[in-house]
Structure formats: C-alpha cells, structure tokens
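Sync notes, pocket subgroup
Present: LS, DG
LS reminded everyone that the earlier model was apo-only. Rerun requested with zinc ion included. Inputs:
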Amino acid sequence: MAILFECPHCNKSLEARDEAAGKTGKCPSCGKDIKVPEKTSADTAK
Ligand SMILES: [Zn+2]
C-alpha cells in the first residue's frame, strides 16, 4: 500500500511507500525537499 500526496512546491501527484511516512525526501519532479505525510484515515479503512 502506498501513500498518495501532492508536492507542496509543484503540486505534482506523488506516491511513497508506507515506510516513508513522516520522512523527508526530494520531489522527483522539482527536486525540492518534501515531507511525506502520515497515512490518511481513508487508507486504514480498507
Ligand atoms: Zn515538486
């Protein structure tokens, strides 16, 4: 399962692994630092 979120800098839709929740990385589109959000409540409902 993956975390879907948008880059706050370029608004590109990104996908990160669950293990990356709460961690920081670089956006593959704009190259700026981004933080991967925690899992959304909708994901845990499955
Ligand atoms: Zn970006």
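DG: The mean pLDDT is 89.
LS: The CA atoms of residues 24 and 35 lie 4 Å apart.
Action: DG to write up.
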